[in-house]
Amino acid sequence: MNPPSLSRLVAEAEGQGVGLGRLMLEREAAESGLDVERVRRRMAEMLEVMAQSVAEGLSGRARSESGLVGGDARRVEEARRAGRAVDDLVAAAAARAMAVSEVNAAMGRIVAAPTAGAAGILPGVLLALEEVRGVARHRTVEAMFGAAGVGDVIAARASLSGAEGGCQAETGSAAAMAAAAAVEVLGGTPAQAAQAVAFALQNLLGLVCDPIGGLVEVPCLGRNAGGAAAALLAAQLGLAGVVHPVPVDEIIDAMGAVGRAMPASLRETGWGGIALTPTGRAVAARLGLAPPPEAAQAGAEGEGEGDGADGGE
Ligand code: SF4
User: Fold this and answer.
1) Global pTM?
2) For 67-101, b where at least 16 C-beta lie within 10 A, e where not — what string?
3) Of all atoms in ligand 1, which is nearest to the CA of residue 208?
4) What span, in angstroms and rounded, lies between the C-alpha atoms of 223 and 120?
5) Whose C-alpha lies nearest to ligand 1, atom 1?
6) For a FRET experiment, which of 78, 163, 218, 249 has its CA 20 to 30 Å from that of 2?
7) Which residues, in sequence order, are bridge partners of residue 70?
8) Ligand 1 pocket mutation, candidates 224, 265, 268, criterion most atoms within 8 A of CB
9) Topology of the domain comprising 6-262
10) What are the residues facing 267 on neighbouring strands?
């Protein structure tokens, strides 16, 4: 059986003259046996939970128990509102993505989209587009079905998990989903949405998963902000009609292959990257979290991290 294909979904949507969101909404209704309006309502409820997480994070109240994360989403939003934004839409999306990430770190209620670690990117981008560009809520809800369809294809062909494929699989996939949805709400075609997916994934290809102490806090907070910005940039390329010479399904497959080639130290063990910096190790020790194995620590001191820090793979 052929693996799911984003190119095929695009062809189907374009054949029917609908967006990816509408195509996936109708599929979901057909598969679940529920009527379209009920399925749409369920997605709208999910978006409402996302909006509540954003509000909670932007309030500055969400703080993680470790003390590593909390208050930065509010800081970015305040800078934006004070006119200190590099770009209003990017700042709004980053603040909202960080807000959800902070709520997740504080064990609050979030919607995994597609995972808890990367949960800020899709709501960050879509709720910023509502606020800054005035996108109507019903369009956001429909576009979320398209984003879910993109996530399904990536899950089947590659991975959505940091432990399996590094952060490229988590925040990269979330950025790809958000990029497709952003293209749709901004009036782009399904083919343009697929191009945005291709660029989002390509531009985050190889991104490692390296949480300090194994906590989904640092670098995850910044990665959610970065994923939101990457999604908007990819959407821009798609909307402009830039076409990647490599078909999107092949880029998804490449992401899966890169993930499989990554050493275990860079796949959510907390044994590599930012987690293995002297400060990362000190923070983990202060929090009483298990230190990386000695081989990984030796790698951090310049003794061949590529060989020594892969957890024995
Ligand atoms: S660094 Fe790892 S845990 Fe953090 S968001 Fe990325 S994949 Fe998730």
Assistant:
1) 0.95
2) ebbbebbbebbeebeeeebeeebbbbbbbbbbbbb
3) 1
4) 9
5) 209
6) 163
7) 63
8) 268
9) 2-methylcitrate dehydratase PrpD (1.10.4100)
10) 209
CA-CA distances (angstroms) from residue 238 to 16, 65, 136, 190, 205?
20, 40, 21, 10, 18
What atom of ligand 1 comes closest to residue 210's alpha carbon? 1
Q: How many Å from the N-terminal Cα to the C-terminal Cα in the chain? A: 31
H helices present in 204-266, as ranges: 220-240, 248-261
Q: Which residue has the tokens 């880029």?
A: 251
- Ligand 1 atom having least distance to the Cα of 224: 5
Ligand 1 pocket mutation, candidates 167, 207, 221, 274, criterion most atoms within 8 A of CB? 167
208: CA distance to ligand 1 center in Å?
8
Domain ranges for the chain: 6-262, 273-308
Q: Are 16 and 23 in contact (CB under 8 A)?
A: yes
Residues with C-beta less than 6 Å from any ligand 1 atom = 117-118, 162, 167, 170-171, 209-211, 216, 219-220, 223, 268
Mean pLDDT, 10 residues at a time, the chain of 313 residues:
94 98 98 97 98 98 97 98 98 99 98 98 99 98 98 98 98 99 98 99 98 97 98 98 98 98 96 95 92 71 38 29
What whole-number distance in Å separates Cα of residue 198 and Cα of residue 174? 12
Return the pLDDT at 308. Answer: 31
